[in-house]
Amino acid sequence: MTRFARLLRRLPRLPYVLVTILADHWRASLVLPLLASCAIIHHDSPPAAMITPQQIRLADDIHLANEGWPSARWWEQYHDPQLNTLVDLALARAPTLAIAREHVSQANAQVELIRAASGLQMSALAETDREHVSGHGFLSAYASHDPAIGAYGPWYWTGLVGVDAHYDIDIWGKQRDLVRAAIGEQNARRAEAAQAELELSAGVAQLYYSIQITYASLDLLRQLREVRAFEFDTRSARHERGLEALTQSADARAQLLAIDQQIASSEEQVVHAREALRALAGAGPDDLPAIAPVPLPAPSVSLPSTLSYELLARRPDLQAMRWLVQASFDKIDSAKAAFYPSFDITAFFGFNALRMRDLFMHSSQQINLIPGLTLPIFDGGRLNANLHGARTASNTLIEQYDQAVLDAVRDVAQSGSEIDDIDHRVHLQHERIDALRFASDSAEASYQTGLGDRTSAIQAKAPVIQGRIELVRLTGDEIEAGIVLTRALGGGYRSDDLPGDLASTKAH
């Protein structure tokens, strides 16, 4: 495409006066040589390939229910007022969100700064100067004292006061492209703030349920300790009567001490998780509400029936990268526009006098109107280097975006597959506990009917309790995987203000 053809494509964006000028044949003939002498674009590469919708899908061997995407306040599905309070506290006070919001504010200021540079610039100025005129310069006549010509030299108090204005005529859209790029980066920062909210709410939920899982395990560990303590007391009594060797009593004591160690470790885990939760929420020593044990929720997770481009709108991190890619295209357009002539107008209105007492006389009035044209011809490769840098940065962002999309699909697939696997193991664990409970109930029945001793009946409870501890751990893993899946699906985020289909940007 010739430069003049590119010029004609830009005609709808030109001011009316310039369109009239270009429409006039003889004036257009003056513009053509100017355009022909512009710097030439060398070796601009095409944009990197974008990911296709076919790659944004899950394998068919994940069998979760297809019930749609997470809701905006997804953590409320657990129906736990304590969790709701903690998430709301974190969203209101967490330092990470404050940082993200500052980044958004900084991006807003950058948009305003670039937009301001594209408008009319006006400034008032006033200055005075004590000047000694050279007898050998352009004003040498004023170096002597000659009132006939207004010379009272060689010393003068000169003065200047007025209004200065400057306006760049953005014919090729260079400045408009920079504004659009800044707006794209601003939208990316907003999406990053949404990602920070998602990470924060997911982190709070994970820490909260790690505490609840530990509470549930502690309760079962204390029950198991009662069994081990009874067994130790029984064997100690038998040893004292000479009915058993010391070895069996020592073994029972070792098992009791192992349970005590697990209880102490679990209590310490609660303290660590609570402090991590306090730091994440930005709460002070007395600001975090007490966390009481509650029944664990029944895990309920599902996958949407299809991912495709919907995942791009649901994941704030992908949406942020998408905006950055879009902004990179605008920067490329701005870099290309720098190859064409630029037009500006500078104007001045005010008063200028060689003597201060003459400054505000009508004869001291000064008016300047200076249309300007800057034509890049030889720049040592600066413009091409700038374009190459913009193109390389854009292609890098596209490649990072493609990889991030594939990673997002992988995260969803892995979380869904993990939940499938845990759900199967939970089902098997329930069957195992039922079998262990049957054996325990049989031992208890034998004891009640006098066919067995109490020690055997108590000991038969230990495998059941240990099975329930394992079930609690699996339930915790399933809750954790559900939170991870929710985060992989973007939480409740949904962008309705999408940039154009990036797959159609090969014209850039």
UniProtKB/TrEMBL annotation:
It comes from the Bacteria. Signal peptide: none annotated. Pfam families: OEP. Its main location: membrane. Keywords: Lipoprotein, Membrane, Palmitate, Signal, Transmembrane, Transmembrane beta strand. It is found in: Cell membrane; Membrane. Coiled coil: none annotated. This is Multidrug efflux system outer membrane protein. The lineage of its organism: Bacteria, Pseudomonadati, Pseudomonadota, Betaproteobacteria, Burkholderiales.
